[in-house]
């Protein structure tokens, strides 16, 4: 698979991957893959089907059979819009549990690669540059301090009119990051060939502009 038109953006939770990746995709006219959504959808579908997040064989089956469609802002699971439901912290935690299971990662691999179109792709997640698109032309590792990330998530939830508790969010991000960094398969880590973008003191526009600059240099 030719990955000359792939930009892989990895990083920990609430580092800004989704926001930044979508804007970069829009500016370049590329497709966009939110790979975390696929793990979240798997966790939600398992919950709906009464499958335990620890049952590797059964969860991998759920992942293989996911009936999902991304339609603009909507994310349809068996025709029901679950775009908001999958953002719940409980589902985020479930996503990181099922994401540690090798059979589940294998089940979602090809599905992720199918997002690559002739126009190009911006993909965000934890292993976009290391596993899913190892030959991506540009790889970026987005980071920000744990405190800044927790505050970003807090503001995001409050902005959506949801209840939020900064201490709980901080603890949840910490345990999810630890699990994502320590797992045996596709752990969260900056690949040697990825550009580091530290955004603790950087707004979205500046981060987008930096990635677009790197992209111009790569072409
Ligand atoms: O996808 P990920 O969990 O990495 O993060 P996100 O959902 O894109 O970003 C979390 C929140 O941080 C969003 O509300 C972004 O607008 C905000 N953000 C920010 O304030 N400054 C940045 N440099 C990046 C993101
Ligand atoms: O938005 P946020 O960064 O909090 O999470 P996400 O990108 O939606 O991913 C949810 C969970 O899925 C993460 O905590 C990871 O455990 C897992 N994930 C993964 O293992 N590999 C990916 N490429 C994307 C997500």
TrEMBL record:
It is an enzyme of class 2 (transferase). Its EC number is 2.7.4.25. Keywords: ATP-binding, Cytoplasm, Kinase, Nucleotide-binding, Transferase. One of its GO terms (molecular function) is kinase activity. Gene3D superfamilies: P-loop containing nucleotide triphosphate hydrolases. ATP binds at residues 11-19. Residues 7-213 form the Cytidylate kinase domain. PANTHER family: CYTIDYLATE KINASE (PTHR21299:SF2), CYTIDYLATE KINASE/PANTOATE-BETA-ALANINE LIGASE (PTHR21299). Belongs to the cytidylate kinase family. Type 1 subfamily. This is Cytidylate kinase. The gene is cmk.
């Amino acid at each position: 698979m030719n990955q000359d038109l792939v930009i892989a953006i990895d990083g920990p939770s609430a580092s800004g991957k989704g926001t930044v990746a979508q804007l970069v995709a829009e500016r370049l006219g590329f497709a966009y893959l939110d790979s975390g959504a696929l793990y979240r959808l798997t966790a939600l579908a398992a919950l709906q089907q009464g499958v335990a997040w620890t049952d590797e064989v059964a969860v991998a089956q759920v992942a293989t059979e996911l009936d999902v469609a991304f339609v603009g802002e909507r994310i349809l699971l068996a025709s029901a819009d679950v775009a908001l439901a999958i953002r719940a912290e409980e589902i985020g935690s479930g996503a990181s549990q099922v994401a540690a299971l090798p059979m589940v990662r294998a089940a979602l691999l090809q599905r992720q690669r199918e997002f690559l179109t002739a126009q190009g792709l911006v993909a965000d997640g934890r292993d976009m540059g290391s596993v899913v698109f190892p030959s991506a032309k540009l790889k970026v590792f987005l980071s920000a301090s744990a405190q800044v990330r927790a505050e970003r998530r807090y503001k995001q939830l409050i902005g959506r009119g949801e209840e939020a508790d900064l201490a709980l969010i901080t603890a949840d991000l910490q345990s999810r990051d630890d699990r994502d960094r320590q797992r045996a398969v596709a752990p969260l880590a900056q690949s040697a060939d990825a550009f580091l973008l530290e955004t603790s003191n950087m707004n979205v526009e500046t981060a987008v502009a930096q990635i677009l600059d790197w992209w111009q240099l790569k072409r």
